[in-house]
Amino acid sequence: MPTPSEIALQLQNLLPLLTDRFHDELPVTGAEVSGGILTISFASAHNLAVNRKIFINEALIRNEITSVISNADGTVSYITANTHDLTAYSSAGHGGTWPEGLAVTLELPAETSVTLVPDESGVPHENEFVGIEGSPVFIPSGSEYLLENRSEGVVGFKTIATVPDPTSITVDLSDVPDVPDGAIIISNILTNIRVSIVANVQRAEAIYTKQTDPKAYLFVVMLDRNASKNRANSDDFTSLPGSSEKFLNLRQEFSTLVIVPTENNLGAGSTKDFVYTDLFSILLKCLYGWQETGYISDGESIYNSAFYAHAFDWESRQQINFEDGFLNRNTVALRHINWTQVVFDEGESDGQIDYE
Prior knowledge:
12% of the residues lie in helices and 42% in strands. It has helices at residues 4-18, 201-208, 269-287; strands spanning 24-27, 30-34, 37-41, 53-56, 60-70, 76-80, 104-108, 111-116, 128-131, 145-149, 156-165, 168-172, 182-185, 188-191, 195-198, 217-228, 247-261, 293-303, 307-321, 336-343, 347-354. A hairpin with a 2-residue loop joins strand 11 (156-165) and strand 12 (168-172). The two termini are 48 Å apart.
C-alpha cells in the first residue's frame, strides 16, 4: 500500500514525461561530463541552489566513432570508443537482429545528423553496430559520434551538487555506469515540479493562493482507510467456509487534487476540457494499476473566478490477516512431563521426565 511520499514521487517522475502543465523549463546552452561530474550551463542566471532537485528528461550522449569498416556484403560496421547502449533481439526466433523500425542517429561534421538504418546483423558487439548497404563511410577524425539517449542514470530527478556561478550548476553522476567524458546534448531541464502532499483540501487551497505567479498545481491528499469483509463475493478466501474470518481487505483511498488558474478563462470551459479528457488520461497512465491502485471517481472540488480545483479519487488495496497483528504465545516452559507407555500384551508402564 503506497505512502503519500511514494504517490507524490510517482507523479513527480511521470507527469513531466506526459504534460508540461506542472513544471517550468530552463533552456540549457551547454552540458559536459568530466570525471563523473555533469556541468550544465545556462544563458542567464538560474536562481537554483545546492541540494535542489531538477529533472532531466532527455540526454543525448556522444559516443565517439573510432573506426568505420566497409564489409564485403555492402554493409558498414561502426566501432565506438565507449560501450554503447544499443540493443538487438537476442531470442532464437530473431537471430540477434535489430527490432523492426529502429534507427540510429550519427553526428557528423558535414551534417547535423544522419539517421542510419541498421542492418539485419544488428549488434555484433557492445562497441560495434552495423548499418545497411549505402550507410555513410568516412575516415574518423575525432568529430564523428553515435548519439544515444540513455535513460538509465542520467535521465530523471537529480540533486544539484554545486553552483559554480550564477549561470551553471553541477550534478554528480559518479554512480552512473558507462557515461563517457565529453559534451552531451541537453536542451533544457525541468524545475519547480508542482506536486506536493497536503493534509486536506483547505490546506491545498491555502498553499495555492500564496503563489505569486499562479500555475497548475497537483496535491496528494490521503483520505480514509477502511476494511471490507463482504462475504457475498466469492474469491480465493471467502469461497472457503469460515476462512474469511482471518482475512481483511483494506482500502486506502487518496485524492489527487488539481488546481488550475482560471482568471483568464471565463467560465472555465477549456479547463474542464483539460481535466476531464487530457488530465484524466495522463493520471491513469501515472497511477492506474501501480501498487494495486484503482480509480474511484472524479469531479469538481472548488471553483471561483481565480482558479478551478478538480479531485480525482483513487484507492489502493491490501489484504491482512491475524499474522500481521498480535500473536499470543502458544508455548510455555516445561518442568515435568508425565507419560504412559502402552505395550501390546505387556500392559502399561508410567514414567516422568524432569527439566531443570
